[in-house]
DNA sequence: TTCCAGTTTAGAATTATTATAAACTAGAAA
DNA sequence: TTTCTAGTTTATAATAATTCTAAACTGGAA
C-alpha cells in the first residue's frame, strides 16, 4: 500500500530515529507523513485513526514509543498547551499557534506573522531552546 | 498567627471566590499571599509545604479545590508549560516566563521585556484570551 | 536458515487530577 | 446562646494520560 518512494523515506526516518522499520511503524509513518498538508494530533486521536479499519492492530504502547522517538529525532514537534494532554505537530518548521480553548484545536501561525522586536537575554549559562508562541483564543 | 489586617484580605479573597473562610483555607491563603515576593508552585510542592510542620493537616483535595477556585477568581494564574503537571503563579499581573527544562523552574519576565511588534488577527468570531510567552531555556 | 537483539503487545503500574460520600463546621437565624 | 443547615473537609475511590514490564514475536545480519 506504500508507494516505494515514500517507503524509502519512512525507512530513513525510522533508521535515523534509531528504530527498525517494522510494519507497525511503517503504518504509523504512512498515516503521519503521507499527506499534502501537515496536521496536529494527540496520541488518543492518532490511536483511533490508526486502528480504525480492522486489518492489523498497532498497540497503544507502540504508538507512544514511536511518537516519542520521532519527537526526539525532530520528525515531530510536541506542543504543550493543554492541561492534561500532549499535542503533536507534523509541521516541524518553527512556527506559532492559536489554541482554541473551546474546540481544543490548534491552528498554525506562520513564523513571519509574529514579530518579536524585543526579547530578554536568558539567565547566565542558559540558552534559548525554543521561542514559539501559543495564543489562546475563545469566542 | 495571621495578623488581623491580612486576615481581612484573605477573608475577602475567599468570599469573592465563593469560598467560606475556614481555617484550612486561611492557612493556604497565608502560605500563598503573606509574602514580600510572588512565587511559582505546583500542587505537589504546595501540599508538601503546607503540611510540613505537624500542627493541623490540610487534605490534598482541599488544596486542589482552593487553588482551582483562586485561579478561576483570578487570584492565581495557571501556567501550562510542563507535560504532566500544572504550575501556578501568585503574580497575577500579565507577564512572561522563562521555563528551564533542566531544573523545571519558572522565572518571571516583566511584560515590558518582550515587545510583540506584529501579532496576527484571530480567526473570525474568536478573541485573544491570553498572550503570554513561555521561553524554554536549557544549559 | 539460524539466531538474537530489538520489537510488539496486553496488561499492570504510576502520576496527576477529579469525584464521592460520610463526618464535620461556619455562621445565619431563632 | 443554641439550633440548624448548607457548605466544607477528608479519606478514599475513580479516572485519564502516560510509562513500565515481561513474555511472545520478528527483522535482518551472518
Ligand atoms: Mn493528568
Ligand atoms: Mn499524565
Ligand atoms: Zn502547527
Ligand atoms: Zn510568573
Whole-number average pLDDT of chain A?
92
Termini separation of chain A comes to: 42 Å
Under CATH at level 1, the class of the largest domain in chain A stands as Mainly Alpha
Order of helices and strands of chain A: HHEHHEEEEEEE
Radius of gyration of chain A: 17 Å
* Uncertain runs of chain A: none
The third-level CATH topology of the largest domain in chain A is: Arc Repressor Mutant, subunit A
What spatial form of chain A do the alpha-carbon principal axes imply?
Answer: globular
Structural class by secondary-structure content of chain A: alpha+beta
Compact summary:
The first copy, chain A, has about 140 residues and is α+β, with helices and mostly antiparallel strands. The first copy, chain A, has four helices and eight strands; from the N terminus they run H-H-E-H-H-E-E-E-E-E-E-E. Strand 6 of chain A pairs antiparallel with strand 6 of chain B.
Describe the SSE topology:
The structure is a homodimer.
Chain A: H1 4-16, H2 23-33, E1 40-42, H3 43-50, H4 60-73, E2 77-79, E3 87-89, E4 96-100, E5 105-109, E6 115-118, E7 127-130, E8 134-138
Helix pairs in contact in A: 1-2
The structure holds manganese (II) ion (MN) (2 copies) and zinc ion (ZN) (2 copies).
One zinc ion binds near residues 91 and 106 of chain A.
The first copy, chain A, binds a DNA duplex (30 and 30 nucleotides) through helix 4.
Amino acid at each position: 500500500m506504500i508507494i516505494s518512494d515514500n517507503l524509502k523515506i519512512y525507512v530513513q526516518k525510522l533508521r535515523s530515529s534509531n528504530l527498525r522499520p517494522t510494519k507497525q511503524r511503517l503504518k504509523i509513518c504512512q498515516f503521519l507523513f503521507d499527506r499534502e498538508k501537515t496536521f496536529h494530533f494527540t496520541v488518543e486521536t492518532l490511536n483511533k485513526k490508526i486502528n480504525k479499519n480492522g486489518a492489523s492492530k498497532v498497540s497503544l504502547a507502540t504508538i507512544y514509543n514511536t511518537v516519542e522517538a520521532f519527537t526526539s529525532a525532530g520528525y515531530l514537534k510536541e506542543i504543550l498547551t493543554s492541561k492534561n494532554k500532549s499535542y503533536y505537530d507534523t509541521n516541524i518548521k518553527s512556527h506559532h499557534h492559536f489554541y482554541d480553548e473551546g474546540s481544543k484545536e490548534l491552528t498554525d501561525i506562520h513564523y513571519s506573522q509574529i514579530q518579536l522586536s524585543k526579547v530578554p537575554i536568558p539567565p547566565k549559562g542558559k540558552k534559548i531552546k525554543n521561542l514559539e508562541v501559543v495564543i489562546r483564543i475563545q469566542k
